[in-house]
Amino acid sequence: MKPTYEQLVEIVEYLQKENKELKRRIEQLEKELRKYLNENTPSGSIPPYLKRLEETINRQSEEGDNSDPPKDNPRNERPEHVDRTEHHSLKNPTCPDPDCNGHAKRRGTSTRKRIVVELQLPMAETVEHESDIYQCEKCGKVFSAPVPNALPKTEFDITTTVFISYLSIAAKMSVGDIKALLCLFGIEVSEGSITNAMKRLKRYLGPNHKELLEKVKAAGSRYKDETSHRFNGKNFWTWVIATKNWAYYTIERRRSHKVAMELESISGIDTVDGYAGYNKLRCERQRCWAHLLRRAKKPIYQFGIDERYGDYKTFAKKLSLLFHNAKTEKKERTASKELRDKYDKKLWKLLQSAPTEGRNITRLTNYMMRFNSEWFTFLQYKDVEPTNNRAERSLRPMVMKRRISQQSRGMDNMDSYAMQMSLYMSSKLQGTNYVENLTNILQSHVSSEPYKS
């Protein structure tokens, strides 16, 4: 029996409602997926189960087979310098075979050599310092002799304080793990004492931190980015300005253009992503190509009838090829304003040839046109990179530390953490030793401290 007209109308209405509900549900799932897959997500942060098998195969084919170990394998190297040599012999040598147990004699003068790296754990000692008390004969002021190699109002000397800072910043250890490690050296200390020791560093690193900000502002090319930071359950933001030799960190309450304006420079080039907070900066900008290409390769909407995936994929490939050619031509030729104008025109022609229908292509082209004159700034200046990956790499230690320690509890401790991280990353970029740099800063302050009355 054929359905009547009224029944067909009811079926169509039901299917329309169901289709509308399915579309709504798909949009919700796409929004959830965007938390893990977006243009700001580095490949290393994507969970394996969210990566496409095709991308994994392509990456392996590009990198090649890594099954063979490298030629210069550091695991197989032995130390060239030997601190001491020990000779081992047996008083009454017997055969190790239990069925034989015969007497053995030394076989000529031959020996078997084996290099073993031995660790000798140092043990901490508690020292009571007695300082003589003096009184000025002129004004009557009473003061005592200072304690060398020790910060005021702390139970640790400079060496221990620097060691704690290194464990927290470089080794990314939590306060509880630092406490457990110090027990191996015979140091029984509470977690609060460790936190207070790191918090006091803010006083000594403050001038160095301000000086570092002026250095990165004066640099010819800078790379800026930001990421979240938890403070007492609230969301704060870590801002970074990275250069070739310096890295400056600050943790602020907001992620807004006001903070970006406080950290801005009038001269030089800022390489940034598509965050709107950087739009009001007065200096020239280079927008990040890594974010643009990730956005192009990972469309967030489903392809409907009005948008064909083949056309979108072709446009994305042309965009990637344009970027590749620009980098290649910059290497072959000298960076110049003419080269930048040439590729600005090519980009405009590519935008004109883009498909006109579909939410994905509209989202991508709008993003490109929003920063139309800022995509090929790197072609005009020699030392400017086309991506802000330098800032992303500088933020990676902060993100890893955030996963371990979760959040900061005190404002002074949070500021001190940003200062220590700035000194550590700057030392790492310059190829210097963080422990030596921090020790020199603390010792210079201790030597200039006035006598305590």
Describe the fold and architecture:
- By secondary structure, the protein is an alpha/beta fold.
- 46% of the residues lie in helices and 9% in strands.
- The chain contains 14 helices and seven strands.
- The protein has helices spanning 5-34, 53-63, 158-169, 175-183, 191-199, 201-217, 257-262, 289-297, 309-332, 337-352, 359-370, 389-405, 411-430, 434-448; strands at residues 133-135, 142-144, 221-231, 234-242, 247-252, 269-272, 284-287.
- The strands form two sheets. The chain has a five-stranded mixed beta sheet with strand order 5-4-3-6-7. The protein has a two-stranded antiparallel sheet with strand order 1-2.
- Strand 4 (234-242) and strand 5 form a beta hairpin.
- The longest helix has 30 residues, at 5-34.
Helix percentage: 40-55%
Terminal Cα span: 106 Å
The largest beta-sheet arranges its strands as: 5-4-3-6-7
Judging from the principal axes of the Cα atoms, what is the shape?
A: extended
Task: Count helical runs.
Answer: 14
Helix and strand sequence: HHEEHHHHEEEHEEHHHHHHH
Q: Helix- and strand-based class?
A: alpha/beta
How many E strands?
A: 7
Strand residues, percent: 5-15%
How many strands, what sense, and barrel or not for the largest sheet?
5 strands, mixed
Question: Unreliable segments (pLDDT under 50, ≥5 consecutive)?
Answer: none
Radius of gyration from the alpha-carbon trace, in angstroms: 31 Å
| Average pLDDT rating | 85
